[in-house]
Every structure is written in structure tokens, then in C-alpha cells.
């Protein structure tokens, strides 16, 4: 087929031309006719004056028909019709001419740059780019400095004086202090105040403080009275002595004067040792009872009502509640149990002695820990009652936990989020019990429940005497750590309490019932204690 088509196209006619040649001639004739018609129309509309040339003709004359060379680089020719004067063109044609001029100039620049870049090596191109970037950065810096200088020049000297006065009024910034061994103080020490012995407070507001509170403050600071129940009972006994001995001055109410004296006494106790949750709850109840009493009643009747309230609180909230808790725990203790306890708790001691007196056969493992070593006193009291006991240090807890059947612990306070605040080391025992899948029972009276929420032991805690940590009971000579700490001035942190999460505790035994840890808000709603 292709050979036949070629033979037809190559046939020569009578005029001596092939088909292709005839078509090409026809197309040329049409184009020449169209060009002539356009030239006639342009000449009719506008004819240039003598001696004038259109801008297009001038530009084309300057450039010439041949390609122009710039810096040895060939520039492409821009073909623009010379015979069209600019004045006779329409707006579209003028825009088209301007756009073609721009394109031509951009092409020329790009061609020059590409030719130059092709001549340079890669390292030279990188160096060139770096020079351009550095020049741009310097230009930016110069503009910024100029702007700042202009702003400073615009500010009046009066405003400058005001600014200087304002900066002087602000306190100076305190940088983080460094220890003498070069390390920065840890942020964990920030919530705690420095430990101060009670001798520093023995001359503070003593004239208006009852001797019972002075004696109590010394016993608190020396740790002769430990445990939340013991501290609360001793505080209420001191309150009863204060109420009995109080004499109101003339023209003053008994309740108002008692509030003033009580505020000074409690502030002294707070300085000796921070108050426990049980003490604060008892004080709040006592103050609420004081405000409810009618002021028109004689002083002796007010004293009688307050003393009756103190006696009923000790009997109902502490003693009777402890008896109810011991009866509930007694149901959970069976013959042959090995019960693990920690530290010395008056409530736990009462529970175990009553269980032993009810002919229950069990063994007790007392876990002790430094620096207070309360477990030794607990061991002495239980062995005196005839209970089979063994004492273990807290570092040997893992070796004993396998034989334990139940863990019974005391509590300093029970928080709203279900966490248990108790003596330092309780969370470690609860964690070990969870690892060995042993039940953990926490015994706590409802008057110790608190509305405070605490997720760890660093938010709020009580700091003890750091020198107790440096005691060495095995040698008569002083501990070598004391001399080193004095030379390097090291600080030791002695935290008295820790916080145990709710998921590590099986149940909380109260005088109301055996409850989960998460039931604290319900108990606080039911109980009339406003904590």
C-alpha cells in the first residue's frame, strides 16, 4: 500500500509538477495574499511621518536580523513584524509585544547564567551560593540594626527614665543555688522546709500558752508520742486541761477568748511538729462545736459542754471505732495464718492481742525499718502478750513474703483519691504483696479520712531530723558520714510518710464496714466531719 501511495504522489502532471509541489505553491499564494491585505489596512489607518521610525523598527534595527552575542554567549533572535507600526496596533497586540520582549530578556539572562554555571565546577558553584547567602544575611542584619536605632531615636528621654525606674523596682532574679560539691539542688527538696529542732521555738509566744501544750510540743518534737491516734488523744487531753483552767478577762466572751488562746497554742504545736490529719480533724470538730454553743450561757456550762464533747469524741471516734475494726478483722483471721505487720500501730496491736485472746492460732512477722525502728517496740508488746513473733528488717522482705498469708497495715490518713498515707516504707510492703499476690488490709478509722488529694509523697510530706540517718548503732565512735557531711556540707532528706496507690490495697477496714479505697468520698458525705 505504501509503495502505491508513493508512486501516485511521485507522478508528474502536464505542467511538470508533482502533487506535493502544487499544494506547496497554493499555500504560499494564500499566505502572500493575506499579508498584502493586512499591510494595506495598516497603511490606511496610520502612516508614520517622514524621518520617524516606530519603536519596533528601531529595536529590530539595533538588534539586526542576525543573532546578537553578549559576553560571548549567543542570544536567540526575537522575530517581530517590522512593518507593523506600534500606533496602529490594538491593545492585545501591544500586550503581546511587551510580553515577548520580557520573555526574550529573561531567556537571555537564563542563557547567560546557564552558560556561566556550565563553565564552573561544582565546588565553585557551592562557593558562589554561599557568598550570595552570606550577603543576604548581612543585608538582613543591617536592616534590623537600622530599625532598632530608629526606634531608640524615637523614644524620648522621659520614657527612658520611666523604664529604668520600672526595672529598678522589680526584685532581682535568684539563680539556682549550688551545693558545695558542685551539684545543683534537686527540685524534689523544694516542697519541704528545713528541719529545725524545738529549741529554736522554746521562746516563741510562751507567755500566752498553757503548760500542757508546751509539754505536748516537746513530746511531739522528741518523738516520744508517735502514731496518729496517740497524738490526737494527747491533743484532746491538753485541750480539756486548757478548758478547765481558762479564766476569761472582764468584758470578753469565753468562746472568743478560747479561740484566741487555742490559735496561739496550735501554732506553737505546728512549729514543734506539723499536725497530723487526725489532729486537724479533731480541732475542726471542736471549733465547730464551740461556735454552736450559745454565748449567753455561763462559762461553767460552756466548759461542761466542751469537756463532754472531748470525752465523747475520744470514746466514739477512737476507742469504739478501734473495737469495731478489730471485730471485723477477727473474722478474716483464721487458724494457722502468718500475718505480716509493719512498724508500731496502736490499732494493729489491739487487733492482734484481741485475736490471740479469742483463741486464734497465728504467727506474726514484724517488719522494722530505720531510723525510728518502731518495730522493736511492737515486738516487745506482742511478745509480752504471748504471741509468736519474728522480727525482720525491710531489706529481707522478699525472703519472708512467700510464707505470709495476710498483710495488715495501719494508716496515717486515707485520701479522697483512695491513696493511703502512712509511715515511710508502707508502699514498698504493699508492692511486694502485690508481686506475691497476697491480700493487703488497711485498718483506718473514719475520722482520719481527708478531702485532700495526693498522688505521690513529694507534694506534701513531713521532714524529720536528718542526723538520725547518720546514727551508727554498732560502734561507739561517731559515724564517719557525719564528719564527711560537715566537711562537704551535704544535706540529707528524711521523709516520714509515703503514699500507697489504691490498686495495691485489697480493702480498707473501718468501723462502718470493709470498704474499697475508692469509697472515701461517700464516707465523707455520710459522716458529719467537715475536713
From TrEMBL:
Where it sits in the cell: the answer is: Cytoplasm, Cytosol
**Region listing for Disordered, in residue ranges:** 1-72, 138-164
Q: What is the predominant subcellular site recorded for this chain?
A: cytoplasm
Transmembrane regions listed in the UniProt entry: 492-515
An example Gene Ontology molecular-function term: translation initiation factor activity
One GO cellular-component annotation of the UniProt record comes to:
cytosol
For the keyword Cytoplasm, the answer is yes
Q: Does the keyword Protein biosynthesis apply?
A: yes
- Compositional bias (Polar residues): 56-70
The alphabetized UniProt keywords are: Cytoplasm, Initiation factor, Membrane, Protein biosynthesis, Transmembrane, Transmembrane helix
Which Pfam families does the UniProt entry name for this protein?
A: IF-2B (PF01008)
Comp. bias (Basic and acidic residues): 1-19, 31-41, 147-163
**Which protein family is named in the record?**
Belongs to the eIF-2B alpha/beta/delta subunits family.
How would you summarize the oligomeric state and partners of this protein?
Answer: Component of the translation initiation factor 2B (eIF2B) complex which is a heterodecamer of two sets of five different subunits: alpha, beta, gamma, delta and epsilon. Subunits alpha, beta and delta comprise a regulatory subcomplex and subunits epsilon and gamma comprise a catalytic subcomplex. Within the complex, the hexameric regulatory complex resides at the center, with the two heterodimeric catalytic subcomplexes bound on opposite sides.
Tell me what this protein is called: Translation initiation factor eIF2B subunit delta
Amino acid at each position: 500500500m505504501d509503495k502505491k501511495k508513493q508512486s501516485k504522489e511521485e507522478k508528474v502532471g502536464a505542467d511538470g509538477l508533482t502533487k506535493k509541489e502544487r499544494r506547496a505553491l497554493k499555500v504560499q499564494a494564500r499566505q502572500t495574499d493575506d499579508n498584502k491585505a493586512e499591510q494595506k489596512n495598516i497603511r490606511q489607518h496610520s502612516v508614520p511621518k517622514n524621518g520617524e521610525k516606530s519603536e519596533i523598527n528601531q529595536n529590530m534595527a539595533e538588534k539586526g536580523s542576525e543573532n546578537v552575542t553578549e559576553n560571548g554567549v549567543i542570544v536567540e533572535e526575537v522575530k517581530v513584524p517590522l512593518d507593523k507600526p506600534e500606533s496602529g496596533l490594538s491593545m492585545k497586540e501591544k500586550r503581546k509585544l511587551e510580553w515577548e520582549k520580557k520573555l526574550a530578556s529573561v531567556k537571555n539572562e537564563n542563557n547567560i547564567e546557564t552558560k556561566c554555571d556550565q563553565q564552573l565546577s561544582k565546588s565553585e558553584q557551592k562557593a558562589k551560593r554561599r557568598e550570595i547567602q552570606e550577603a543576604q544575611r548581612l543585608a538582613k542584619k543591617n536592616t534590623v540594626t537600622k530599625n532598632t536605632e530608629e526606634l531608640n531615636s524615637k523614644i524620648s528621654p522621659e520614657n527612658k527614665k520611666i523604664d529604668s525606674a520600672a526595672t529598678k523596682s522589680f526584685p532581682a532574679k535568684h539563680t539556682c543555688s549550688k551545693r558545695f560539691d558542685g551539684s545543683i539542688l534537686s527540685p524534689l527538696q523544694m516542697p519541704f522546709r528545713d528541719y529545725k529542732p524545738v529549741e529554736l521555738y522554746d521562746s516563741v509566744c510562751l507567755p500566752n500558752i498553757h503548760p500542757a501544750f508546751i509539754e505536748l510540743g516537746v513530746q511531739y518534737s522528741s518523738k516520744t508520742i508517735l502514731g496518729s491516734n496517740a497524738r490526737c488523744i494527747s491533743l484532746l487531753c491538753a485541750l480539756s486541761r486548757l478548758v478547765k483552767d481558762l479564766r476569761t478577762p472582764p468584758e470578753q466572751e469565753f468562746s472568743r477568748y478560747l479561740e484566741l488562746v487555742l490559735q496561739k497554742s496550735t501554732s506553737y504545736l505546728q512549729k514543734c511538729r506539723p499536725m497530723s490529719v487526725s489532729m486537724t480533724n479533731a480541732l475542726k470538730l471542736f471549733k465547730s462545736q464551740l461556735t454552736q454553743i450559745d454565748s449567753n450561757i455561763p462559762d461553767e456550762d460552756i466548759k461542761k459542754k466542751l469537756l463532754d464533747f472531748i470525752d465523747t469524741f475520744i470514746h466514739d471516734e477512737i476507742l469504739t471505732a478501734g473495737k469495731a475494726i478489730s471485730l471485723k478483722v477477727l473474722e478474716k483471721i483464721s487458724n494457722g495464718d502468718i500475718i505480716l505487720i509493719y512498724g508500731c500501730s496502736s490499732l494493729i496491736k489491739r487487733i492482734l492481742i484481741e485475736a490471740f485472746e479469742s483463741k486464734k492460732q497465728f504467727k506474726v512477722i514484724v517488719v522494722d525499718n530505720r531510723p525510728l525502728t518502731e518495730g522493736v517496740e511492737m515486738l516487745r508488746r506482742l511478745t509480752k502478750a504471748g504471741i509468736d513473733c519474728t522480727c525482720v528488717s525491710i531489706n529481707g522482705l522478699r525472703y519472708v513474703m512467700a510464707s505470709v498469708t495476710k498483710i495488715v497495715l495501719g494508716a496515717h490518713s486515707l485520701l479522697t483519691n483512695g491513696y493511703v498515707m502512712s509511715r515511710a516504707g508502707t508502699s514498698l510492703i504493699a508492692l511486694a504483696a502485690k508481686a506475691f499476690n497476697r491480700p493487703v488490709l488497711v485498718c483506718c478509722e473514719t475520722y482520719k479520712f481527708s478531702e485532700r488529694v495526693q498522688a505521690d509523697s513529694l507534694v506534701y510530706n513531713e521532714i524529720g531530723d536528718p542526723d538520725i540517718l547518720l546514727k551508727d548503732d554498732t560502734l561507739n565512735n561517731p559515724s564517719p558520714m557525719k564528719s564527711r557531711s560537715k566537711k562537704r556540707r551535704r544535706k540529707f532528706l528524711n521523709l516520714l510518710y509515703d503514699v500507697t496507690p489504691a490498686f495495691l490495697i485489697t480493702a480498707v477496714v473501718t468501723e462502718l464496714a470493709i470498704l474499697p479505697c475508692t469509697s472515701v468520698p461517700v464516707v465523707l458525705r455520710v459522716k458529719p466531719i467537715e475536713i
